[in-house]
Amino acid sequence: GAGVSQSPSNKVTEKGKDVELRCDPISGHTALYWYRQSLGQGLEFLIYFQGNSAPDKSGLPSDRFSAERTGGSVSTLTIQRTQQEDSAVYLCASSLQGQESYNSPLHFGNGTRLTVT
Amino acid sequence: DQQVKQNSPSLSVQEGRISILNCDYTNSMFDYFLWYKKYPAEGPTFLISISSIKDKNEDGRFTVFLNKSAKHLSLHIVPSQPGDSAVYFCAASAYSSASKIIFGSGTRLSIRP
């Protein structure tokens, strides 16, 4: 398929453990976002990668959260020493966002549901 | 600091009538606005967008209106159909600077028969 792929779709982990969430964006998309949606809440911005620019990490809630994007394609979001409040759906999205792609919206994956017990 | 606000968490509309979803923003640098629709257990999907050079954009049953002076936009769905029942997110960005896209908290729309 040509869509954004996220894995795993579900992850249950014990408090204090580290987790890695993976996102495969649409090929050729220069922009990649991570958002999370906690139960009953809206979409909370976490981090934004655009081409070769330094990522915008302004939404990361604590230093336990980090993300990288290797080779301008696949991205991993890592949460260290997970806490119960980290339980949420983590959504990845990509787009052709840029000066030549004004009308390119975000394409979302189906998310990873993280449950910290 | 919530830059994009959807003050109505839920809305119920009768099938066939008009649904109006509202969104307010605070950042005057925003120049590109989008609406997304989300079903349970799926990622949001793009619905319609508008740039700040326009005040209206229409696509079939969906129309987005932008009032820049009031920093307000709305999504009109007419006629409303059962399949429109979903959570709708408003989003905005300062597109001219390729900045991040900020989402509102969403409005759950329910279409009743």
Describe the structure.
The complex is a heterodimer of chains A (117) and B (113). In chain A, the strands form 2 sheets. In chain A, strands 2, 4, 5, 8, 9 and 10 form a 6-stranded mixed beta sheet that branches. A 4-stranded antiparallel beta sheet of chain A has the order 1-3-7-6, with no helix packed on it. Chain A is mostly beta strands and 117 residues long. Helices cover 0% and strands 44% of the residues of chain A. Chain A has no helices and 10 strands. The model of chain A has no long low-confidence stretch (mean pLDDT 90). Chain A has strands at residues 5-7, 10-13, 19-24, 31-37, 44-50, 65-69, 75-79, 88-95, 107-108, 112-116. Chain A is globular and about 35 Å long. Chain B is an all-beta fold and 113 residues long. In chain B, strands 2, 4, 5, 9, 10 and 11 form a 6-stranded mixed beta sheet that branches. A 5-stranded antiparallel beta sheet of chain B has the order 1-3-8-7-6, with no helix packed on it. Chain B is globular and about 45 Å long. The relative contact order of chain B is 0.34. The mean pLDDT of chain B is 93. Chain A binds chain B through residues 4, 31, 33, 35, 41-43, 45, 48, 50, 56, 58-59, 91, 93, 97-99, 102-103, 105-111, and chain B through 6, 32, 34, 36, 41-46, 49, 51, 89, 91, 95, 98-106.
Which key terms come to mind for this protein?
heterodimer, A: 117 residues, mainly beta, six-stranded mixed sheet, four-stranded antiparallel sheet, globular, B: 113 residues, five-stranded antiparallel sheet, 11 strands
Principal-axes geometry of chain B comes out as globular
Oligomeric status: heterodimer
Largest sheet of chain B: 6 strands, mixed
The secondary-structure class of chain B comes to mainly beta
Span from first to last CA of chain A?
33 Å
Q: How far apart are the first and last residues' alpha carbons of chain B, in Å?
A: 38 Å
